[in-house]
Amino acid sequence: MLIARGLHALLTRSGRKQNEVAKAAGVSVGTVTRYLGWQDRSRLRVPTMRAIAEACGATAAERDALVQLVSDQDSGWWMDHPAVPEILDPLVSFEAYSTYEHVWANSLIPGLLQTPRYALALHQATDVRLDAETIASRVDARIKRQAILDRSPALHLWVVLDEQVLRRSVGGADVMAEQIDHLTAMAERPNVDIQVLPAAIGAHAAGSGGHFVLLGRDDESAPLASMAVVYLELHRKGLYLDGPNDVADYKIMFDYLRRDAADSARSLTLMADARQEHTR
User: Fold this and answer.
1) pLDDT, tens digit, for every residue of 171-193?
2) I need a labelling partner for 184 at 20 to 30 A (CA). Which of 70, 160, 245, 252 fits?
3) By C-alpha distance, which of 203, 196, 123 is closest to 165?
């Protein structure tokens, strides 16, 4: 999937058509289509990938990253790496392919729901050694990523939010009031569900674990096109798990979390209460 997304990004940037890329790479149009469609991963070949990438105008770093993905599809791309080109960002790639995204947020508002000022305050707190321009660039990238919620067909986002996240001040009272107002507005969307897990619940299914994201796509007509992966957000990079047992465990965990969380109406009340605490 990362391979397909990377090639699509290169193709779009190049402005070339598939038949033009096929001719330049010395392969058939069908071969280009297969690589762009993430079909039959066992038939992907390093020389073909290199030729298609170069025909799409890839930089050396982009070409080499795609070649490495073909060489090591099972493990080399599950971890974020600072040398991986932007077109191969794993989380963005998974979101682009997914039909649903389930998030347990116990420390901060999920990126897809953050306001620019909230995101800026977070980056200023966590990236204390970065210059303002770099931080602004990262905030811009996070906000642009939210466009995934406006696509058609829409990504279904379901978030279970620990109540303490609403009460933790990030950026000050004005920023938090604006952020909670944004959550309230987003919860009205048909493709966004937000539940708050009340602090009174106490111990819960996620235990001492941290923020996690479950991304997936179910396709009964084409099982090879189905996908499920868990993203664990760590301090400096993310960890991706796609083992069936791991994914099943996190699915069950999320089911228990949303069972114990307040329903939609009660969650809106809890958000309003938290907003009032910030502004009084």
Assistant:
1) 999 999 999 999 999 999 999 99
2) 252
3) 196
Distances in whole angstroms, Cα of residue 23 to Cα of each of 156, 167, 269: 39, 58, 60
Instruction: Report the distance separating Cα 133 and Cα 194, nearest Å.
Output: 32
Q: How far apart are CA 238 and CA 235, in angstroms?
A: 8
Quote the DSSP letter at residue 202: -
| Residue 20: alpha-carbon gap to chain centroid | 32
- Residue 250's φ and ψ, nearest 5 degrees, are -75, -30
What's the residue count for the chain? Answer: 280
Per DSSP bridges, beta strands 212-217 and 100-105 are antiparallel
Going by the DSSP 8-state scheme, the letter that residue 43 receives in this structure is G
- Name the amino acid, one letter, at 204: H
Percent of the chain scoring above 70 in pLDDT: 88
Choose the most confident range, by mean pLDDT, from 62-71, 89-98, 183-192. 183-192
Q: Cis check for the bond before 153: say yes or no (omega within 30 of 0).
A: yes
Are the C-beta atoms of 65 and 85 separated by less than 8 Å? yes
3-class secondary structure per residue, the chain: CHHHHHHHHHHHHHCCCHHHHHHHHCCCHHHHHHHHCCCCHHHCCHHHHHHHHHHCCCCHHHHHHHHHHHHCCCCCCCECCCCCCHHHCHHHHHHHHCCEEEEEECCCCCHHHCCHHHHHHHHHHHCCCCCHHHHHHHHHHHHHHHHHHHCCCCCEEEEEEEHHHHHCCCCCHHHHHHHHHHHHHHCCCCCEEEEEECHHHCCCCCCCCCCEEEEEECCCCCHHHCEEEEEEECCCCEEEECCHHHHHHHHHHHHHHHHHCCCHHHHHHHHHHHHHHHHC
